[in-house]
Amino acid sequence: MSNTKTVSFLYDDGAIDLEVPAESAVLTSRVDELKSTRSGREIVHEAMMNPIDSPLLSELAKGKPDCCIIISDHTRPVPSQDILPEMIAELRKGNPDIKIKFLVATGFHRPTNMEELRNKLGNDLYDEFKNDIIVHDAHNPECNTKVGVLPSGPDCIIDKVAAESSLLIAEGFIEAHFFAGFSGGRKSVLPGICDAVTVMGNHCGEFIASPYARTGILEGNPLHIDMVAAARMAKLAFICNVIIDEDKKTVAAYAGNFETAHLEGTEFLAKYCAVKPAPADIVITTNGGYPLDQNAYQCPKGMTAAEASINEGGVIIMLATCKDGHGGQSYYDSIHDAATADEFFQKCVNTPQKETLPDQWCAQVWCRILRKHTVLFVAAPEQKQLIEDLKAHYFPTLEEAYAEARRIKGENATVTCIPNGISVIVRD
């Protein structure tokens, strides 16, 4: 009987195999079981007809001259062609004359361009609404207006289009998120349509350092608490959030109250993604392969899965090609320019909330992990210098990284394998 087993780790558009001790834990989600024989439109329609803690959207539309629908931007695989036609039909059922606008929730991302919007919406929706699409700009104060103050102190400043609408609703999708707990729901407002001042206040060093600002955690999560408050201040009246399978097809939908409908969706998803930690001396993880392993900026996501299931002072082996480079200049500079990972982490934690730097949150998570664990990084050969600049140890192959991990932790070291680091929610 063999005392080893083969585990496959997602990398680029394929996988890399490794022989590990037979007793090694393998943490995998059940997302491959998320399937549906029904069309996405059918699933969304049923959810819209049975809203959670909310009147029907057609009822909410009655007497409202206009409606602003917050839609996702180019960075999110939200199946808008399943959701928006159903929302629009319900709005017009309740009020045939209602004026509808789309507000693109770019958050802190670059603006979505018109070609990306056409691809997202499809030709029919794009052609009908192209003159009523507003791309949110977090960096232009003239486009945004204050609607309140977040529980933690910063001003809650949102897009004027949303603030001035008589009915504000949102589409979205739910997936695990490495510091907000889950995407979807309240995130359409914060960070989706908030001013940079509000986003950076919410993503401050103190909050990112919280033990509750972790994948799959909402209760006690300081970012989530502010996000919910922002959505209330914005008067977000209705959402339709979906859950998608590995092929990005809609398999479930939750419509209605932005808090309770979202919560039901997160609880459903967690049944497929949540795994118990199996702390080990060596943890091997990935960023899920292509497309999320193409730059270093995304990699803290897969790294947090390992962080949640490792012994103190353990070794993390991370697999991601990073063939597109760092993915964010300020992210790279923050880590590269610090003397040590701990130095930058401490700087973030001690930076006043109102002085949060753009994109410091991803760099902070990276450094939070590096300050406690040795990180051996398997990436494309041309990214050796990048990986070293980011204070990790570069290896050209998984076998070489694993041999080094064994050298560091000893031949009797325990091993945990996470073939897809972004598909699991590691929690007790």
Automatic annotation (TrEMBL):
Q: Which residues form the Lactate racemase C-terminal domain?
A: 275-426
PANTHER family this protein is in?
A: LAR_N DOMAIN-CONTAINING PROTEIN, LARA-LIKE N-TERMINAL DOMAIN-CONTAINING PROTEIN
| One function term, GO molecular function aspect | lactate racemase activity
What NCBIfam families does the record tag this protein with?
A: Ni_dep_LarA
Q: Which domain of life is it from?
A: Bacteria
Where do the coiled-coil regions begin and end? none
Protein name from the UniProt record: Lactate racemization operon protein LarA
- Segments spanning the bilayer are none
Q: What residues does the LarA-like N-terminal domain cover?
A: 11-216
